[in-house]
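Collaborator request, handled under Task 6.
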Amino acid sequence: MRLIVTFTFSVFFISSCSINRDLLFQSPKGFKYSDLGHATTTDYKLAANDELSFQLFPNGGERLLAITTGIFSEEKNNSIFQNRNMGTYRIKPSGQVELPEIGLIQVSDLTLEEAEAAIENAYSSTYHDPYVLLSVTNNRVLVFPGEAGQATVITLQNQNTTVLEALALAGGVRSRGIASKVKLIRSTPDGRDVYLLDLSSMEGVQDASLIVQANDIIYVSSTPDLATGFLNEITPIVSITSTIGLLYAVLRGL
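C-alpha coordinates returned to the collaborator:
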Protein backbone atom coordinates (compact mmCIF):
# COMPACT_ATOMS: atom_id res chain seq x y z
CA MET A 1 0.00 0.00 0.00
CA ARG A 2 2.90 2.33 0.76
CA LEU A 3 4.11 1.77 -2.80
CA ILE A 4 0.74 2.89 -4.16
CA VAL A 5 0.79 6.08 -2.08
CA THR A 6 4.35 6.84 -3.14
CA PHE A 7 3.46 6.29 -6.79
CA THR A 8 0.39 8.53 -6.51
CA PHE A 9 2.29 11.44 -4.99
CA SER A 10 5.08 11.08 -7.54
CA VAL A 11 2.66 11.25 -10.45
CA PHE A 12 0.86 14.21 -8.88
CA PHE A 13 4.11 16.13 -8.36
CA ILE A 14 5.15 15.62 -11.97
CA SER A 15 1.76 16.57 -13.38
CA SER A 16 1.42 19.67 -11.16
CA CYS A 17 4.32 21.23 -13.04
CA SER A 18 2.16 21.32 -16.18
CA ILE A 19 -0.86 23.17 -14.74
CA ASN A 20 -1.84 26.16 -16.93
CA ARG A 21 0.63 25.26 -19.64
CA ASP A 22 -1.79 26.93 -22.09
CA LEU A 23 -0.60 30.41 -21.06
CA LEU A 24 1.23 32.18 -23.90
CA PHE A 25 3.97 34.81 -24.15
CA GLN A 26 5.18 34.43 -20.57
CA SER A 27 8.07 36.76 -19.73
CA PRO A 28 11.04 35.41 -17.76
CA LYS A 29 11.91 37.04 -14.46
CA GLY A 30 13.79 40.28 -15.01
CA PHE A 31 12.66 40.61 -18.64
CA LYS A 32 13.37 44.11 -19.95
CA TYR A 33 10.43 45.60 -21.82
CA SER A 34 10.85 48.15 -24.59
CA ASP A 35 10.47 51.82 -23.69
CA LEU A 36 6.93 53.03 -24.39
CA GLY A 37 8.32 56.47 -25.11
CA HIS A 38 9.93 55.02 -28.23
CA ALA A 39 6.75 53.33 -29.45
CA THR A 40 6.22 55.89 -32.18
CA THR A 41 3.73 55.16 -34.92
CA THR A 42 5.45 54.79 -38.27
CA ASP A 43 3.82 54.60 -41.67
CA TYR A 44 2.98 51.05 -42.65
CA LYS A 45 5.18 49.52 -45.36
CA LEU A 46 3.39 47.40 -47.93
CA ALA A 47 4.30 43.72 -48.00
CA ALA A 48 3.58 40.54 -49.94
CA ASN A 49 -0.02 39.24 -49.69
CA ASP A 50 -1.43 42.64 -48.76
CA GLU A 51 -4.80 43.24 -50.41
CA LEU A 52 -4.86 46.68 -52.04
CA SER A 53 -8.07 48.56 -52.70
CA PHE A 54 -7.23 50.57 -55.83
CA GLN A 55 -9.02 53.58 -57.33
CA LEU A 56 -7.83 55.69 -60.26
CA PHE A 57 -9.18 59.09 -61.31
CA PRO A 58 -7.90 61.26 -64.19
CA ASN A 59 -7.51 65.04 -64.15
CA GLY A 60 -6.15 65.21 -60.63
CA GLY A 61 -9.19 63.56 -59.09
CA GLU A 62 -11.64 66.05 -60.58
CA ARG A 63 -14.43 63.48 -60.80
CA LEU A 64 -13.84 62.30 -57.23
CA LEU A 65 -14.18 65.88 -56.02
CA ALA A 66 -17.36 66.33 -58.06
CA ILE A 67 -18.85 63.17 -56.59
CA THR A 68 -18.01 64.01 -52.98
CA THR A 69 -19.34 67.56 -53.31
CA GLY A 70 -22.59 66.36 -54.93
CA ILE A 71 -22.16 68.20 -58.23
CA PHE A 72 -23.13 65.12 -60.25
CA SER A 73 -26.60 63.64 -60.02
CA GLU A 74 -27.05 60.20 -58.43
CA GLU A 75 -27.64 58.61 -61.86
CA LYS A 76 -24.46 60.12 -63.21
CA ASN A 77 -22.61 59.14 -60.04
CA ASN A 78 -23.53 55.49 -60.61
CA SER A 79 -22.24 55.67 -64.17
CA ILE A 80 -18.96 57.18 -63.02
CA PHE A 81 -18.52 54.60 -60.28
CA GLN A 82 -19.11 51.78 -62.77
CA ASN A 83 -16.72 53.11 -65.39
CA ARG A 84 -13.76 54.29 -63.35
CA ASN A 85 -10.73 52.09 -62.69
CA MET A 86 -11.15 50.42 -59.35
CA GLY A 87 -10.71 47.01 -57.75
CA THR A 88 -8.83 44.95 -55.18
CA TYR A 89 -5.45 43.45 -56.01
CA ARG A 90 -3.08 41.24 -54.02
CA ILE A 91 0.63 42.01 -53.78
CA LYS A 92 2.56 39.03 -55.12
CA PRO A 93 5.40 37.30 -53.21
CA SER A 94 7.79 39.21 -55.48
CA GLY A 95 6.49 42.48 -54.00
CA GLN A 96 4.77 43.48 -57.24
CA VAL A 97 1.10 44.14 -57.90
CA GLU A 98 -0.52 43.73 -61.30
CA LEU A 99 -2.81 46.63 -62.23
CA PRO A 100 -4.92 47.29 -65.34
CA GLU A 101 -3.08 48.73 -68.34
CA ILE A 102 0.30 49.18 -66.65
CA GLY A 103 0.81 45.56 -65.57
CA LEU A 104 3.30 44.71 -62.82
CA ILE A 105 4.69 47.45 -60.58
CA GLN A 106 6.89 47.12 -57.49
CA VAL A 107 5.20 48.38 -54.31
CA SER A 108 6.62 46.21 -51.51
CA ASP A 109 8.44 48.15 -48.75
CA LEU A 110 6.73 51.38 -49.84
CA THR A 111 4.31 53.38 -47.72
CA LEU A 112 0.83 53.95 -49.14
CA GLU A 113 1.75 57.49 -50.17
CA GLU A 114 4.93 56.31 -51.89
CA ALA A 115 3.02 53.55 -53.70
CA GLU A 116 0.32 56.00 -54.81
CA ALA A 117 2.98 58.32 -56.23
CA ALA A 118 4.72 55.45 -58.06
CA ILE A 119 1.44 54.23 -59.59
CA GLU A 120 0.39 57.75 -60.57
CA ASN A 121 3.71 58.13 -62.36
CA ALA A 122 3.16 54.82 -64.18
CA TYR A 123 -0.32 55.92 -65.35
CA SER A 124 0.81 59.41 -66.38
CA SER A 125 1.59 58.21 -69.92
CA THR A 126 -2.02 57.03 -70.33
CA TYR A 127 -4.07 59.47 -68.23
CA HIS A 128 -3.81 63.20 -67.74
CA ASP A 129 -2.75 64.03 -64.19
CA PRO A 130 -3.81 60.66 -62.68
CA TYR A 131 -4.94 60.57 -59.06
CA VAL A 132 -4.64 57.23 -57.22
CA LEU A 133 -6.21 56.15 -53.93
CA LEU A 134 -4.87 53.05 -52.18
CA SER A 135 -5.80 51.32 -48.94
CA VAL A 136 -4.89 47.96 -47.43
CA THR A 137 -8.00 45.92 -46.73
CA ASN A 138 -6.48 42.98 -44.84
CA ASN A 139 -4.32 44.65 -42.18
CA ARG A 140 -4.91 42.78 -38.92
CA VAL A 141 -4.19 42.89 -35.20
CA LEU A 142 -4.29 39.76 -33.04
CA VAL A 143 -5.86 40.20 -29.58
CA PHE A 144 -5.62 37.72 -26.70
CA PRO A 145 -8.11 39.15 -24.14
CA GLY A 146 -6.94 37.24 -21.06
CA GLU A 147 -8.81 33.94 -21.22
CA ALA A 148 -7.24 30.65 -22.24
CA GLY A 149 -8.40 29.43 -25.62
CA GLN A 150 -9.74 32.82 -26.71
CA ALA A 151 -8.27 35.14 -29.33
CA THR A 152 -9.69 37.57 -31.87
CA VAL A 153 -8.32 38.74 -35.21
CA ILE A 154 -9.22 42.40 -35.70
CA THR A 155 -9.22 43.81 -39.23
CA LEU A 156 -8.06 47.42 -39.13
CA GLN A 157 -10.69 49.63 -40.72
CA ASN A 158 -8.59 52.77 -40.34
CA GLN A 159 -5.03 53.79 -39.58
CA ASN A 160 -5.87 55.39 -36.21
CA THR A 161 -7.15 52.40 -34.22
CA THR A 162 -5.93 52.53 -30.61
CA VAL A 163 -5.08 49.71 -28.22
CA LEU A 164 -8.29 50.43 -26.30
CA GLU A 165 -10.40 50.28 -29.47
CA ALA A 166 -8.79 46.99 -30.50
CA LEU A 167 -9.52 45.51 -27.06
CA ALA A 168 -13.11 46.77 -27.26
CA LEU A 169 -13.57 45.15 -30.68
CA ALA A 170 -12.31 41.89 -29.14
CA GLY A 171 -14.91 42.09 -26.36
CA GLY A 172 -12.76 43.73 -23.68
CA VAL A 173 -10.52 42.24 -21.00
CA ARG A 174 -11.85 38.90 -19.76
CA SER A 175 -12.53 38.03 -16.12
CA ARG A 176 -9.15 36.32 -15.68
CA GLY A 177 -7.31 39.09 -17.51
CA ILE A 178 -4.88 41.36 -15.68
CA ALA A 179 -5.46 44.90 -16.95
CA SER A 180 -2.20 46.10 -15.42
CA LYS A 181 -0.20 43.61 -17.50
CA VAL A 182 -1.08 44.07 -21.15
CA LYS A 183 1.70 43.29 -23.61
CA LEU A 184 1.97 44.91 -27.01
CA ILE A 185 4.21 42.86 -29.29
CA ARG A 186 5.31 44.68 -32.43
CA SER A 187 7.48 43.58 -35.36
CA THR A 188 10.42 45.82 -36.22
CA PRO A 189 13.20 45.60 -38.82
CA ASP A 190 15.46 44.34 -36.01
CA GLY A 191 13.04 41.73 -34.64
CA ARG A 192 10.26 42.41 -32.14
CA ASP A 193 9.62 45.02 -29.46
CA VAL A 194 7.55 44.08 -26.41
CA TYR A 195 5.84 46.90 -24.50
CA LEU A 196 4.11 46.55 -21.13
CA LEU A 197 0.91 48.61 -20.74
CA ASP A 198 -0.94 49.30 -17.50
CA LEU A 199 -4.62 49.87 -18.28
CA SER A 200 -5.85 49.35 -14.71
CA SER A 201 -5.95 53.03 -13.73
CA MET A 202 -6.65 56.47 -15.17
CA GLU A 203 -2.91 56.97 -15.51
CA GLY A 204 -3.01 54.22 -18.14
CA VAL A 205 -5.26 56.19 -20.49
CA GLN A 206 -2.22 57.40 -22.39
CA ASP A 207 -1.05 53.81 -22.85
CA ALA A 208 -4.52 52.82 -24.05
CA SER A 209 -4.41 55.61 -26.66
CA LEU A 210 -1.36 54.13 -28.36
CA ILE A 211 -2.04 53.60 -32.08
CA VAL A 212 -1.77 49.96 -33.13
CA GLN A 213 -0.02 48.91 -36.31
CA ALA A 214 -0.65 46.08 -38.71
CA ASN A 215 0.38 42.67 -37.34
CA ASP A 216 0.61 43.89 -33.73
CA ILE A 217 -0.18 41.35 -31.02
CA ILE A 218 -2.07 42.55 -27.93
CA TYR A 219 -1.76 40.01 -25.13
CA VAL A 220 -3.59 40.47 -21.83
CA SER A 221 -1.83 38.45 -19.13
CA SER A 222 -4.15 36.22 -17.13
CA THR A 223 -4.24 34.84 -13.61
CA PRO A 224 -3.46 31.11 -13.50
CA ASP A 225 -6.62 29.03 -13.15
CA LEU A 226 -5.18 26.77 -10.47
CA ALA A 227 -8.48 25.20 -9.41
CA THR A 228 -9.48 24.05 -12.89
CA GLY A 229 -5.92 23.07 -13.73
CA PHE A 230 -5.61 21.07 -10.51
CA LEU A 231 -8.89 19.23 -11.14
CA ASN A 232 -7.99 18.46 -14.74
CA GLU A 233 -4.64 17.06 -13.67
CA ILE A 234 -5.74 15.12 -10.59
CA THR A 235 -8.86 13.47 -12.04
CA PRO A 236 -7.00 10.84 -14.09
CA ILE A 237 -4.59 10.29 -11.18
CA VAL A 238 -7.48 9.62 -8.79
CA SER A 239 -8.98 7.24 -11.32
CA ILE A 240 -5.72 5.32 -11.71
CA THR A 241 -5.15 5.25 -7.95
CA SER A 242 -8.66 3.95 -7.32
CA THR A 243 -8.17 1.21 -9.89
CA ILE A 244 -4.82 0.19 -8.42
CA GLY A 245 -6.26 0.25 -4.89
CA LEU A 246 -9.18 -1.92 -5.93
CA LEU A 247 -6.85 -4.34 -7.68
CA TYR A 248 -4.62 -4.45 -4.60
CA ALA A 249 -7.61 -5.18 -2.35
CA VAL A 250 -8.77 -7.97 -4.64
CA LEU A 251 -5.32 -9.53 -4.72
CA ARG A 252 -5.03 -9.32 -0.93
CA GLY A 253 -8.37 -11.08 -0.61
CA LEU A 254 -7.30 -14.06 -2.70
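The cover message to the collaborator said: "Helices lie at 2-16, 62-68, 74-83, 112-123, 163-169, 205-208, 226-253. The domain at 51-136 is CATH 3.30.1950 (wza like fold). Please let us know whether this matches your experimental observations."
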